[in-house]
Amino acid sequence: MGLLSSHPRDWYGSSQQNHSAVTHFILLGIPNTEGLYTILFVVFLIFYLCTLLGNTMIMMAVVSDFHLHTPMYFFLCKLAILDIGFSSVSAPKMLALLWSESRTISFGGCMAQVFFYHFAGCSESLLYTVMAYDRYIAICYPLNYLVIMNRKVCVVLAIGISVVGSVQGIVFTSLTVTLPFCGPNQVDYFFCDIVPVVKLACTDTKTIEALIFNNVGIVGMTCFFLILLSYVRIIYSIMHMSTKEGRQKATSTCASHLLVVTFFFGPCALIYMQPSLSESLLVLVHIFGIIVTPMLNPAIYTLRNKEVKAALKKLMGTKHTPLLTSA
Hints:
The protein is an all-alpha fold. It has eleven helices and three strands; from the N terminus they run H-E-H-H-E-H-H-H-E-H-H-H-H-H. The chain has a three-stranded mixed β-sheet with strand order 2-1-3. The longest helix has 34 residues, at 107-140.
C-alpha cells in the first residue's frame, strides 16, 4: 500500500542515453493519506455523484421549463455542463487510484487530462465573466435586456467560450506533447496537471512553466477584473432601485453568482499565483476547486432561486404555483 508515500525514482542514465519513449505515467496520488484510502474513496464518490446528479437536474430543469428559457438560465445550463466535465477530468481516475491502486495512465490519457482540464478551466473563467455581463445588462438596462442579450448573441458567446477554451487546451497540450520524455514517468500528483507532467521532461522546462503560469494568471486576472467591474456598476444600480422587492431579487441573484465566482477564482489564485504553497495545502486547494466546487454550484443556485426550485419541483412531479419569467 505504498501508493501515496512513494517518491519519484531516478530514471536517468541508460534510459536517457538511448532516449526511450515514455508510453505511460504513474500517478503517485494524494500525499500523506496512508490508511485513509477507503474513507477518501467514499467521500469523493459521494461528492462526484452529487456533482453529476445536481448539475444534471439543473440542465433538465432549464430545458423542461419554458419559464427558464432566458439568457441567465441558458448560461447556467452551460455552467452545469462544464462543471460535470471539470470534475470528470480527474475524479474517475482518482477514485480508481484510491480503490484499486490503479496508478497507471497511458501517455494519451495523460495528455487528454491536460487538455480537458485547461479547456474546462479556461471556459469556466470566461463563462463567469459572461454571466456577470448578463447580470449587468439585466439590472442596469432592463428595458433593453432581451434585445441586447438575444438568442443569437447568447449562442455566439457560448460558442466563443468553447473556442477560446479549446485553443488554450490545445496550446498547453501541444507544449507538453512536444517535450522529450526519456525515462522519469512518476507524476507526483493525483492527476495529470501540466506543471507536474512537464517537470518530468528531459530538458529545461523553466520557460514553459513561466509561460503556463503567466498565461493562466493573465486570463484569470482579466476575467476577475471584468467581473469586478460589472458588479461595481451592478451594486450602484441596485442601491438606486426604487422598490425594495427589486433590490432583494437583484441582490439574491447576484449573491449566488458572486459566491460561485469566489469558489472558482479563489483556488485558482492560490494555485497559480502562489507557487510556493506547501504540497499538502496545494492538493487541498486543488481538490476543493475541481471536486467540491462543481458539487456546490447547483446547491447555491437552487437554494437562492425560486424559479429553479419551482422547475425542479415540476420536474419531480410536485405541484407548484407557476412563476413568471424574470430578467
